[in-house]
Amino acid sequence: MAPVTLGAVAAHFGRDLDRGVSKVVGIIESAARDGVDMLVLPDACLGGYIGDFAAPDPDDPPPALDPDGPEIAAVIAAAGPMTVCVGYAEEAAGGSRYNAAVCVSGDGVLGRYRKVHQPAGESLTYLAGDRFDSFDTPVGRVGMLIDYDKTFPEAARTLALDGAQIIAALSAWPASITDRASRLPADRQSRLFDLYDCARAAENQVVLVSSNQTGVMGNLRFLGQAKIVGPGGDILCTTRSKGGLAAAKVDVENEIARARKVLNHLTELRSDIYRVRR
């Protein structure tokens, strides 16, 4: 497969759904002009995220969207030949919702994901997903994670073992709410966000495309720091704490093959020895 241009977005998305759809479509169109082949937008960019971990406002939940509804259809129509990952709240039975992501091209839906790991009080707003799956796309085999999922090595490892060459990590990842720093780059969560991105790529020897929200929602201040990480854990490009697009041309197959040439972490696993204890 030829080299592809991968793009990760850092931007603010609020509760205004129509404005969010228009902004997503505009970003896709701009990325297409820049020759981007795969674009990863943040978690909750269609309808916004919750504004408080501990006590989400029950009167202001993210809008629950039909996964086959007009908002996703608008993203599909804008995508054309591009592979696009976008985050939203997926409608569930009983008026609830999942924190979800969908990967599309102009041909339709390529893959879906519902966030599995839930921090703090997120379960007051969202149901939890129950599986990790990779899927084929025009840019290679892809798996998706949503923010807190990347904290758990098992999540990315499951996708890599399912053949994922690229992990799309969509986030609405805020600065620390218990130990705020005066500057975002000095924030503890800022350091962890980058650490997890690099570790998940390096330990699985895959390419990781990490998006994130910016700005403020309720009492959460989002970090940005969208980036592309190579299979050696090296950051190829980043927006840092500002909004924007991090884009890099990557020969995904060759870079993964080079990383695994001597030490192949997936084939050298000793899963017969490992035990998961809780």
TrEMBL record:
<keyword id="KW-0378">Hydrolase</keyword>
<dbReference type="InterPro" id="IPR003010">
    <property type="entry name" value="C-N_Hydrolase"/>
</dbReference>
<keyword id="KW-0449">Lipoprotein</keyword>
<dbReference type="GO" id="GO:0016746">
    <property type="term" value="F:acyltransferase activity"/>
</dbReference>
<dbReference type="InterPro" id="IPR050345">
    <property type="entry name" value="Aliph_Amidase/BUP"/>
</dbReference>
<dbReference type="InterPro" id="IPR036526">
    <property type="entry name" value="C-N_Hydrolase_sf"/>
</dbReference>
<dbReference type="GO" id="GO:0016811">
    <property type="term" value="F:hydrolase activity, acting on carbon-nitrogen (but not peptide) bonds, in linear amides"/>
</dbReference>
<protein>
    <submittedName>
        <fullName>Apolipoprotein N-acyltransferase</fullName>
    </submittedName>
</protein>
<feature type="domain" description="CN hydrolase">
    <location>
        <begin position="4"/>
        <end position="252"/>
    </location>
</feature>
<dbReference type="Pfam" id="PF00795">
    <property type="entry name" value="CN_hydrolase"/>
</dbReference>
<keyword id="KW-0012">Acyltransferase</keyword>
<keyword id="KW-0808">Transferase</keyword>
